Amino acid sequence: MSWDLLEADHLVGLDDPARAAALFKRAVSMVEIEVFSYCNRKCWFCPNSSIDRTGENHYMPEAMYASVIGQLASIDYDGTISYSRYNEPLSDEVIYERLAYAHARLPRARLHTNTNGDYLRADTVPRLHAAGLRSLNIQLYLANDERYDHEKTRFRASQTLRRLGLPATVVRDEPGHWHELRVDYPGMEIRLYGRNFEINGTSRGGAVDIHRDYVRSSPCLMPFNAVYIDHGGEMVPCCNLRSDVAAHRDAVIGTLATQPDLFLHYAGRFAAGFRRSLLDASPKQGVCGDCRFALEELSLPRLMKMDVLKLIARTGVQPEPARRRVIPLAAA
Ligand code: SF4
Ligand code: SF4
Q: Is the minimum distance from the CB of 267 to ligand 2 under 6 angstroms?
């Protein structure tokens, strides 16, 4: 997210629906929706290693999904909608219906998903494209408890490509660290990659044992430009948090089952307070304390911007025009 999109309204807590929708329209470019709960794996680097998602599949109610898409259509949303949270999106045929529904109502949005690749067949990519998907990340995972192995990851890439029957080009090959290919398919961006989570992973809000000794002081902009919706309608501020992890429950910014207005949850008092807690250079607390995700570089203009926005949010006083010219950070 551009720092230029941060504004005092992100920090005050809005209860006016029109103002909340306008703020969402200006700032949000990622909406992640978990249309059902099921995942077939229990990867060691994922909170699903201790929270069971392999049992009964719980679906987001269709009416709730339609409400979210309808609200996004009301602001002519043109950002990304991602369909992967802590489920495996391609494990259930309902994904094609949900994609087609969103594509028809949000023609300017970019529909995206991640997948663990287990359900891919030769006809999967054409079907996803026909339903409106335009971006696909295929993850190359090994067995649930297996640590990263570069040669095995390369082999898994070749197996996946054989199933897809599509051409691909290696774009990144760092032994012990990362292996990635670009898969060619007209009208869809497809990445196929495996990564070493022991090196480049994060603790997912303390839910998995990765880099737990890290101390985060960086600000975080994720809760400013994105919203994440669990299958039950609970909204959380970033991709690392989820409503079914007990330690994350306090970070739920709202529940669509009781208040369907997506924009009011995003702009509301609780979300604003969460954002304020992330907008400085001091060590972060709670679920954000050891997070290595989405780190931001600091500079004097950014430090000044954070202070000025907090001041405006607290006092309601706008800076003098002469000072206001200092705030935009295009050159930061
Ligand atoms: S990382 Fe993905 S595939 Fe693995 S358990 Fe988590 S949601 Fe499932
Ligand atoms: S610091 Fe990490 S856990 Fe906290 S909101 Fe940002 S990405 Fe999420």
A: no
pTM value? 0.94
Q: Is 322 a residue whose pLDDT tops 80?
A: no
First to last CA, the chain: 13
pLDDT tens for residues 109-136? Answer: 999 999 999 999 999 999 999 999 999 9
Ligand 2 center–CA 15 separation, angstroms? 24
* Residue from 120, 123, 154 nearest 138 by CA: 120
Query: Could you give the domains of the chain?
Result: 3-296 (3.20.20.70)
* Pocket perturbation via mutation, ligand 1, pick of 35, 42, 43, 193 by most ligand atoms within 8 A of CB: 43
What does the pLDDT average to over 296-323? 85
Ligand number, closest to the Cα atom of 217: 2
Q: Is 218 in the pocket of ligand 2 (CB under 6 A)?
A: no
